[in-house]
Amino acid sequence: MQEIKVGLEVHVQLNTESKLFCSCSTKLADANTNVCDVCLGMPGTKPVLNEKAVEFALKIALALKSKINRSFLFSRKTYFYPDLAKNFQITQYEVPVAQGGKLRLGEKEIRIKRVHLEEDPARIIRKKDYTLLDYNRSGIPLVEIVTEPDLKSPSEARVFLQDLQQLLEFIYISDFSKEGTIRVDANISITRYKKEYGYKEGMKTEKTEGARVEVKNISGAKEVERALKYEMLRQKNLENVKAETRLWDDKMRVTKGAREKETEEDYGYIFEPDLPRVEVTNELLNKVESNLPELPEMKRKRYEKYKLSKEIVDTLLTEPELSHYFEYLCETHNPKASAVVLTKYLKKTLNYHNLKLKDVDIDIRILRRLLDLLQEYRITDEMAEVIVRDMVNDAVRGEEVRSPDQILKDHEYEEPIKEEKANKLVNDVIRENQRAIEDYKEGKEEALDYLVGQVMKKAKGQADARKVKKMLEKELS
Ligand SMILES: [Zn+2]
Predict the structure, then answer these.
(1) CA angle, 165 as apex, 19 and 146 as ends, to 5°?
(2) pTM for the whole thing?
(3) Contact 90, 272 (CB under 8 A)
(4) How far is the CA of 316 from the centre of ligand 1 (A)?
(5) Residues with Cβ < 8 Å from 161, sequence gap 6 or more?
(6) Phi-psi region of 114 (alpha: psi -120 to 50; beta: other; left: phi over 0)
(7) Domain ranges within the chain, ordered by starting residue
(8) Could you tell me the distance, in angstroms and rounded to a whole number, from the CA of residue 24 to the centre of ligand 1?
(9) At 360, is the secondary structure helix, strand, or coil?
(10) What is the pLDDT along the chain (477 residues), one digit of tens a residue?
């Protein structure tokens, strides 16, 4: 038997316009063009704190229910490496932005240890015969979220990261479509229990506590699961696991030894003398609090009244825009029908193209029109799906998204047969199938499906099966 403990350090890149301590742009650009004396660490330059980054960090802390330190400070973490021009990184050590907190994960809660702000070092890109140091990334604002070692398996670590990313998407502090927006270091230790039978002492359990291994350089949720799975297997085959820092190689899919595990104390932190303490005023805190959007957990609670399946609610909450669209549509249309159009048709098609709702320009009014057509039984479910697919295709091609009516015209779609005709067919079928009707009245539900089938046959498939079923139920009640 074994017990696995995993703790994560999650680095999230904030989507501020400028860097953490200078006014250089954070946008993607040619290497070493978004740089200045400050982020290159020239002597005599002084950092100036980006207030937006502080607001974003506070937003994250509130979303994670962390306790905000009303007065926090920055520290220098000293180390020598080419990605760090000034030989120290400005981060937080003694008093971070916030401490404590939690994220609900199914039935359990994962405790958050701390939330802090820090600057990203430069990016090291290994080329065939040289190494490129790109200082565009030097000084990009990051928030580091550190968990307690509460995660019990590689798959739980993946789910935690997915849920965390979902939460962060809802508060708009980061752009997750950019590569490398989330980077993770994972700490893992494995305790083994061995049952042995001793001659004198009887059954006893021997417990071997494994050393803590840190795996660095993991990007994203799926990679965390892979890296931890690999690390579990590696440690299983070792007599003695030593505490160390390893690097995840996502191409080879192995962890590689990097260095003996250092402790935080080894870095010799000192207070950053060029930055004042940051005081979180009531005014600032109120501002951030009042701008905090509704979080997925609260939305989930609020959606309970619609009695949707868990799967549909999960899908609606995969991106904030989808949940907003759902709420808008609910104002005018049936919630279940709205949820089905958004999740089964729209989200499915977007997934196929690897897109998000915010990437395509689909007007809410177009979706309202589609729901009208569905609710008036003027199109079938199948046709509704075709319309959604066509709309997304229009958007992908960069063309103007056609209206449902235009798409129907383009497909030379014939509306399901008219009310009177359907009525006549229903009555015909009732007259001709007395046996099935008796069965239905005795409670055999499948008899109704048979009758629906008979009407559809007479209508040559041009009727709406849902509507026919309703008409039959009405006639037979
Ligand atoms: Zn700069």
Answers:
(1) 75
(2) 0.84
(3) yes
(4) 39
(5) 8, 10, 182, 184, 220, 221, 224
(6) beta
(7) 2-286, 294-410, 419-476
(8) 4
(9) coil
(10) 789 999 999 999 999 999 999 999 999 999 999 999 999 999 999 999 999 999 999 999 999 999 999 999 999 999 888 999 999 999 999 999 999 999 999 889 999 999 999 999 999 999 999 999 999 999 999 999 999 999 999 999 999 999 999 999 999 999 988 888 999 999 999 988 877 776 766 777 788 888 899 999 899 999 999 999 999 999 988 888 888 999 999 999 999 988 776 677 777 899 999 999 999 999 999 999 999 999 999 999 999 999 999 999 999 999 999 999 999 999 999 999 999 999 999 999 999 999 999 999 899 999 999 999 988 888 888 899 999 999 999 999 999 999 999 999 999 888 777 777 888 889 889 989 988 989 998 888 889 999 999 998 888 777 888 888 988 988 888
Cα-to-centroid distance, 392 and ligand 1 (Å): 40
Tell me how far the alpha carbon of residue 63 lies from the centroid of ligand 1, in angstroms. 30
Distance in Å, CA 36 to ligand 1 centroid = 4
Distance 251 CA to ligand 1 centre (A): 32
CATH number of 419-476: 1.10.10.410
Q: Could you tell me where the beta strands, DSSP code E, fall in 261-391?
A: 270-271, 278-279
Is the Cβ–Cβ distance between 277 and 71 less than 8 Å?
Answer: yes
Enumerate residues with CB within 5 Å of ligand 1 (an ion): 22, 24, 36, 38-39
Pairing of strands 244-249, 98-99: unpaired
Tokens standing for residue 316:
């609606």
Residue 26 DSSP class: -
For residue 69, the CA-to-ligand 1 centroid distance in Å is: 28
